[in-house]
Amino acid sequence: MKKFGIVLQYELNEYFNNKGFVIFTVILALAGAVVLFLPRFIDMSGFTGVETTVSSGQPGEDSQPESGGQTEEQEKTSYLYLDLAGVVKEDVLIQMFPMGSWQKAESEEALTAAVTAGEAEAGFVVLGPSEYRYYVFNKGMSDSNTMMFSQAMKQFFRIDFCAAHGLDLNEIMTVVDVPVTVEEQVLNKDSTSNYWYCYFLVVIVFMLIVMYGQMIAVSVTNEKSNRAIEVLVTSTTPDSLLFGKVIAGAIGGLLQTGIIMGAILLSYQVNRELWGGMLDMFLHIPADVLISFAVFGMGGYLFYAFLYGAMGALVSKTEDVSKSSGGLQVIIMVVYFFALMQLMNVDGPIIKVLSFLPISSYSTMFARIAMGTVAPWEIAVSFLILAVSIIGTGVLGARLYRMGTLRYGNPVKLSAALKGLRKSEQ
User: Fold this and answer.
1) I need a labelling partner for 420 at 20 to 30 A (CA). Which of 130, 228, 397, 411 fits?
2) CA dist 274 to 47, 57, 197, 268, 341, Å?
3) What distance lies between CA 304 and its chain's CA centroid?
4) CA 40 – CA 238 distance, rounded (Å)
5) Can you tell me the distance from the alpha carbon of 177 to that of 174, in angstroms, rounded to the nearest whole number?
6) Dihedrals φ, ψ of 2, to 5°?
7) For strand 100-104 and strand 77-83, is the pairing parallel, antiparallel, or unpaired?
8) Percentage helix, strand, coil, to 5, in the chain?
9) How far apart are CA 133 and CA 121, in angstroms?
């Protein structure tokens, strides 16, 4: 135990005395906090929808948001239309496109030329009461112009039909478009609002496992490549070396992630009202989800970290680490993509099975806790399986590490290493 403590202290000092590690942590934490404090110093009401008063450079004066028709016109999007059917009504277009500025084109050629030259965002050529062409130079993924213009076309048709038949459009719309008031009472979990922060947390724990796992494997291989392992094994044991490296990496990763996430989450909570709650889907995370993320995420990290350490012991050159750990990385990637795909169906059979497997419970179980229905016994059983698997992986990793520490030359295949372990036990 004393030897383990010495190794753990040494490895932790390596992390905390590493300037790159410290600077990276501080920069990310400060950057996240600064961004989330921006509404206190900059008027972001146009983005957040929350009116704020930001102090100017002069004492006693407050800067007011610029107003006036000129600024508003500059922010409006320019559109062109050509009415070949005589049905377009500009007041309806203005209602449908509140941030749009409309002009009538002289011809279809002039309309396309203006759109191509960037003088107009888009153009519409109305061919009939229910038919039109849409012109746009580059269509973005969030382009909703056709959806809104189609609604405008339907309104044109309703107005003309009612005028031709002596009907009152307002009376008809009160029957056709009945306003419905909905009061939602979510009795358990709102998967829609919880989806994005679950996605965010799955990505974080995946990056934590891959980044720190690879660092452990490279650290082990470095000691073999520079022959330092020959000195280390004379003063301590391979088991103490592996466990010390893995636990130190867990503490370092948890501390770094905790500082960065803590700074971001705390900064958002302080400024949540100024953001109008618009980042709740990412940063307003319930305490039970954060606790389950920490517990299962750290468990998954330990599970894979022991395997990464063993993979590093099977090679003697750092350039062979990726080859040795390639199969392990494939498993992690497959689990990662399966977890992301199953977030849309957290109560489905696939993610329920994944939440009990140690290779995947680190991400799928806290996703189920956040978005689905999970019985307490399921959480307990899943954690028990993960804990037993961590112990088993630690023992297996320690044996592989012990066997591979003084082996040099070509990389040892995992299958050959396992066969060697079986023979040594017989």
Assistant:
1) 228
2) 11, 21, 20, 9, 33
3) 21
4) 53
5) 6
6) -65, -40
7) parallel
8) 65, 5, 25
9) 14
